[in-house]
């Protein structure tokens, strides 16, 4: 049976929606534009403004609120990082822990739900018809995991995996126009469980290009071109859906080039770890892209009516290259000494066990090799529940074990990476977050902030009912300070 929600059942979710009209009383802005500069740390903001005091980013901060103590999701993978912003909720509520996970109730793609339940759940480039092409037709249902829904074997699209609604669904229900772009068609997830959240989706496949900084900049420029098209009420080629000639009220997407530059060029091994020339040049591209976006908003005469939100899905660790080292993830898996269904590894190892009863044994075996595997912490059992990840005994999506290495350690066999994300380290999670509009007065806000607060803030800015956002309602997620 398809798992609707552990935290709140379908009836409770419906009740939240019934009690909460999508429209509130006061619309602060006609448009909200939300951008993730993947890999953009909180500390990078100050570094860049010092290096480029006349930059567009510096100008945006002059009329905006900078949240200097903002953190993204745990785990800090792109998929839960995106979902957190647009649902106001964490993985225990959304069901989204990573882009490559396991579910004990799902079945393999194209299996017709036959055989024993339990399957890897990948919402990456593997979902495409052809991941070597920028545009191959989107998601191939033959590549999707399956589950039994209302007695019928069903392909589970990313948006159907989500257990709570998104800001895009609420905006669409209020008659607004929405658009979003990201690195895989699997970011269909932002449509929300109804599948109706986007007027227009634009998802060029990043796996189709070489993983180099210059090619990723070219890829990012596809997203920038889409942003400019949307500001001019135009549908880019290869769009899924249409704007129907209207400027979207809510639109956004991500930039990938900083993420790649940090993994390949990184930071200087010097005091305060300044940018390498390659990383600084990539930040300059991002800044020039924002200059183009601001110019387009001004030309359309909607700049004063648009709230710009920048909130990174994740950072990358380590910033200090002296801390970097890598360990083969197979060594972590083998060290458990028990049967494993799935291990997902970056600068963390996330483990789903074949038998929950093996948890204590697996942890004891890992602890014996903590020094060799550079393990800082192992999260499991009651601690896992207390940390807010949910209960693997009652939720088929929740992992049994998180293995957190010391900062700088990446569980990988890559020969090129010098940084990664997904883990719980400061460099993974302490991200850039700021909002800007000519009507705002410059503020630096040091209060502890979560990117989950972006979702409720979007709704308030657009005059929509914040309580209609189910995940935020469940987790009592508030708007960003200043709103």
- What can be said about the biggest beta sheet? 9 strands, mixed
In terms of structural class, how would the helical and strand content be classed? Answer: alpha/beta
Strand elements, count: 21
Can you give the helix content as a percent range?
A: 25-40%
Integer-rounded radius of gyration: 21 Å
Protein model, in words:
- There is one protein chain.
- The protein has 483 residues and is an alpha/beta fold.
- Helices cover 30% and strands 18% of the residues.
- The strands form 6 sheets. The chain has a 9-stranded mixed beta sheet, sandwiched between helices.
- The chain is globular and about 60 Å long.
- About 1% of the residues have low confidence.
What is the fold's blueprint, element by element?
Layout: H1 10-19, E1 31-37, H2 42-51, H3 56-62, E2 64-67, E3 70-71, H4 78-87, H5 91-94, E4 100-103, E5 119-122, E6 146-149, E7 152-155, H6 158-161, H7 167-173, E8 178-181, E9 200-202, H8 213-231, E10 240-241, E11 250-255, H9 257-264, H10 277-299, E12 306-311, E13 325-327, H11 329-336, E14 340-345, E15 349-353, H12 359-368, E16 375-380, H13 381-386, E17 401-405, E18 409-411, H14 426-429, E19 433-436, E20 443-445, E21 449-450, H15 454-461, H16 470-475
Parallel strand pairs: 1-11, 1-12, 2-20, 3-21, 8-9, 8-11, 13-18
Antiparallel strand pairs: 2-19, 4-5, 6-7, 9-10, 12-19, 14-15, 15-17, 16-17
Helix pairs in contact: 8-9, 8-10, 9-10
Key features of this structure:
single chain; 483 residues; alpha/beta; nine-stranded mixed β-sheet; four-stranded antiparallel β-sheet; 16 helices; 21 strands; globular
């Amino acid at each position: 049976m398809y798992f609707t929600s552990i935290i709140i059942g379908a009836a409770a979710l419906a009740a939240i929606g019934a009690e909460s009209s999508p429209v509130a009383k006061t619309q602060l802005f006609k448009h909200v534009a939300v951008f993730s500069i993947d890999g953009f740390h909180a500390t990078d903001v100050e570094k860049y403004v010092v290096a480029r005091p006349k930059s567009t980013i510096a100008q945006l901060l002059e009329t905006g609120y900078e949240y200097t103590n903002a953190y993204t999701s745990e785990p800090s993978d792109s998929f839960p990082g995106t979902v957190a912003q647009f649902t106001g909720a964490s993985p225990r509520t959304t069901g989204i822990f990573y882009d490559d996970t396991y579910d004990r109730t799902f079945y393999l793609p194209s299996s017709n739900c036959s055989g024993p339940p339990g399957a890897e759940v990948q919402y990456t480039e593997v979902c495409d018809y052809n991941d070597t092409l920028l545009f191959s037709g989107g998601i191939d249902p033959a590549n999707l995991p399956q589950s039994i829904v209302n007695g019928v074997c069903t392909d589970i699209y990313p948006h159907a995996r989500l257990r709570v609604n998104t800001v895009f669904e609420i905006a669409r229900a209020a008659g607004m126009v929405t658009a979003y772009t990201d690195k895989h068609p699997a970011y269909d997830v932002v449509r929300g469980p109804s599948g109706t959240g986007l007027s227009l989706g634009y998802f060029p496949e990043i796996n189709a290009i070489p993983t180099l900084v210059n090619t990723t900049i070219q890829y990012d420029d596809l997203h920038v071109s889409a942003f400019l098209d949307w500001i001019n009420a135009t549908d880019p080629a290869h769009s899924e859906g249409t704007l129907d000639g209207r400027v979207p009220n809510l639109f956004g997407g991500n930039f990938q080039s900083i993420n790649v530059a940090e993994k390949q060029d990184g930071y200087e091994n010097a005091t305060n770890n300044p940018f390498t020339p390659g990383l600084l040049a990539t930040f300059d591209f991002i800044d020039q892209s924002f200059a183009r976006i601001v110019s387009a908003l001004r030309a359309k005469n909607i700049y004063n009516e648009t709230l710009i939100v920048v909130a990174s899905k994740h950072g990358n660790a380590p910033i200090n290259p002296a801390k970097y080292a890598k360990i083969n993830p197979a060594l972590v898996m083998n060290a458990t000494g028990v049967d494993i269904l799935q291990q997902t590894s970056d600068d963390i190892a996330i483990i789903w066990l074949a038998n929950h009863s093996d948890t204590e044994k697996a942890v004891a075996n890992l602890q014996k090799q903590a020094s060799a595997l550079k393990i800082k912490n192992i999260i499991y059992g009651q601690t896992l529940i207390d940390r807010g990840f949910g209960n693997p005994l009652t939720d088929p999506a929740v992992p049994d074990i998180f293995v957190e290495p010391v900062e700088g350690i990446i569980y990988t066999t890559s020969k090129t990476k010098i940084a990664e994300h997904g883990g719980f380290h400061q460099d993974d999670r302490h991200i850039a977050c700021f909002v800007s509009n000519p009507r705002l007065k410059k503020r630096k806000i040091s209060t502890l902030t979560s990117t989950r607060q972006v979702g409720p803030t979007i709704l308030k800015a657009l005059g929509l009912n914040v309580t209609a956002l189910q995940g935020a309602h469940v987790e009592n997620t508030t708007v960003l300070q200043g709103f």
